Each structure stands twice: as C-alpha cells, then as structure tokens.
Amino acid sequence: MIRYIKTINSLESGVLFVDQNDYTKQLEALQLQLASIREDLQKLILDRNIIREELRNLANELNNHRDKLSILKKELNDIRSKLQDRYNRLNEIKNSIQNIKSILRDHISKLRMLSLELKTNRNINDNEALDYIRQRIEQLEWRLITTPHMDPAEERNIVNEISELEKKLSKILTTQRKLTNILNEYEEVKKEVEELRGKLNNLVNELNNIKQEISNLKIQRENLKNEIRKEIDIIVSIKTKREELKSRLKTINDEISQKREKYQEIMKSIKNIQQYIEKSKIKSQIDKKRKNVLEKINRGERVTLYELYIAMQEDAENNEKDNNL
Question: What does the record list as coiled-coil region(s) (predicted)?
C-alpha cells in the first residue's frame, strides 16, 4: 500500500519512480481499492438511510407519546378538579350534619323538657273534676233560684262555695289550656325532630356516597399518575435512543465524508495513471515512427515535413529540458 501511495504522489508531482511495466498492476490495485471503498460507501449509506428511517419513526412515536401524555395530564387535572369539588361538598355536608345535630340536640332537649312539663301538669282526673264542679255549681245555683226564704247564712255559704268552685274551674281550665299549648308545641318540635332526622339521614347517605366517589377518584388519580410515569419513562427512553442514533448517524456521516475524500483521491490517482498510460502509448507510437523516419533518412530516402517534425521532436524536448535546468 505504501508503494501505491508513493506512486500516487509521484504521479501527482509529475515524476514516476516505479517501473513502467508495473503501472497496470498499480491501476488494478487502485481500482480494487476503489471498489472496496464504493462497497463500504454503499453499506454506510444504507446504514445511514436505515438510521434516518428509525429517527423518523422515533419522532412519530415520540409525538404520539407526547400527545398521550398531554391527554393523561388533562385527565389528571380533571380528576383533581373533581376531587376538590367532592372535598368541598364533603366539608359542606359535614358542617350541615354538625349544625343539624346541634339543632337536633336542642330539639330533643326541648322535647324532654316539654314531656316533663306535661307529666307535671297533667291530671288524669281533670275531666272528672270539671264535670263535678260544673254539676255542683249548677246544683247550687238551682238551689239558690228555687229555694224561697232561704236562710241568709245558708245563702252566704252557697254563694261562697260557688265562688270557690268557679276559682277551681278557672284554674283547671287555665291548666288545660297550658297543657294544650305545651302539647301543641311538643308535637311541633317532635315533627321538626323527625324532619331533622330525615335530613340528617339523607346527608349521611350523601356523605357516604361522596366518600365512595372520592375513593374511586383517588384510584383513578393513582392509575393516571402511574400511566403518566410510564409515558415519561417511555419518552425518556425514546429520547435516549434518539440521541444514540444521532451519534451513530454523525459517526456514519463522518465515515462517509472520509470515504468520499479517499474515493476522490483514488479517482484522481487513477486518472493520473490513466493519463500517464495514454501518454506512454502515444510516446511509444511516436518513438516507433521516429525510428522509422531516422532509418529512412539514414538510407537516404525522402521524408515528409511531418516525418521530419517527428524526427526532430526528441531533440526539441531535450533542449527544452536543458533550458529548464
């Protein structure tokens, strides 16, 4: 190979240091080397095209995963928004439950107080006492009306008894009205307690439903987080692979550039050798013609101007070399 390089350098400088009979072998060796480089270039270009196609596929794959990641992040934000909404509603329900429980405790306490008051003021004989008092008053008033010449002392006693009976009657009626009011209030409070218990039960059911919703949303959130992590890992992996391919592509491009430079150098050397070969053929032909012309001159035969020019060409070339020296 060193020999061929020297040959190439010699050809480029216009000086040949090798045997003229060896130029064909040199040319064949350079052509073999050129074919080898051409084959290497074809393989490198094929590898480069494959890598470029892989890079295009990776770019599409990367875009797809980025789009998917964007969708997953949007879904995650939606889940977080729903979770926040559910938590807000959960707090509202808890506050409402606490308020209702507080009101319910007050109402139950009031019911107990009213129930105790009813027990304290209620007298199962009130109706019987009312009937007796009314009947007794009617009897006494009838006696006053129907008894002529009643003793004044007896009349005073009857009047006094009627007065006492009317006081008792008034007291019993007042107590009954009070009991009626207490009973009405008791029933009203009892109704409110039942309504509050219904509301409380509905709120508790809603609370449990929201807790279940929150649990489901948390599961969805974790699943989305896992999917997002997977997509990020895939994207990182694709980017790493892309950088590796880019590095390989740069190496191949550098090799292609080097091979092309070498290819051009060898082509130039081949051209120089081919030019030399062509010059050698021409020179050989001229030398042969010159020899024939000189032989004709030595024999005293006539020669043409062109033949004379060929015969004198060698002397002209030698003189030119001497002048150059």
Answer: 20-93, 172-269
